[in-house]
Amino acid sequence: MACDEGPIRLGDHFILDLDGTLLRGGHATEGAHAFLRAIEGRFVLLSNNSSETSRSLSGKLRRVGFSIPAERIILAGEETIGFVARQYPGARCLIAASEVLRRCARIHGLVPVSENADVVVLGRDTRWTYARLTLIANEVRRGAVLVAANPDLTHPGNDGLVVPETGSLLAAVEAAASVAARHVIGKPSPTLFVAALERLGSTRGDTIVIGDNPLTDRVGASALGLRSLIVHADRHGGHPNLADLCGRLNNA
Description:
The chain is α/β, with parallel strands linked by helices. The chain has helices at about 30-40, 55-60, 75-85, 100-105, 130-140, 165-175, 190-200, 215-225, 240-250, and strands at about 15, 25, 25-30, 45, 75, 90-95, 110, 120, 145-150, 155, 160-165, 185, 205-210, 225-230.
C-alpha cells in the first residue's frame, strides 16, 4: 500500500500535526523550518496536545525557532475546555490536567474543584499518581461526566522512546471506573478538522493533512474526504520527512 493518499498540489492549504511531525523530543525535525517557510500563510497546526493553550504553546515554539502565532494553532486540550464550557456552562470541574488548562477553564467560566465535580476533564497530567486515579475513578462512578482531551496513547520521544499521552490515562480511568468517557475531543474526531478548515478559510478539495500517525491524522482526514500524507522524521517504513516534502512543494 502506498504511503501517500494524495499529492501536494499548487496552492494547497495544510493542516499540520505537531509531535512527530514538526517536533520530536522537543526538537525541530529535519526540514521543518524550511517547510513552514514554504507554506507561510497557508497552514494551521492541529495537535492532540492536551497540556498547553495555543498562546502558551506559541511561546514555547519560539524557543525552538518556530514563529507561529496562536491563531494558527488548534489544540485538543484547549478545544476540550471550550467544549465543556459550552455544553456544561459554569460546571464544577475536576481538571485532571496541567495548570495551564486549569487557568483556561477559569477564564471560560468553569469552576475547578478537587471533589464532588459535575465534570471530570482529563488531559495529559504529568503529576499522575495512584491517588489521583482513585479519586477520578470514584468521581466518575459517582456520576461526574468524563470528558477526555486526546485519545492518543503515546507520542514519539527521542531515541525510539514513547511518551505516555492522555489516552493511556483515560484507559486506566475507564478500567477502574467501569464507565466510558462521555466525550473524547481530539483527532481523529472530525470536530477539530472542521475547526482547522474554518480557521484556514479553505475547502476540503484544496487542503491536505500532514502528520505522523495514520490512526489519528489519516483516519481523521479520510472521514472528511481530505487528502493526507504520513511523514516520519527518520523516513521509517518508506514515509517521507518534511525535507522531502519541500522538494515536492518546489515541483508542485
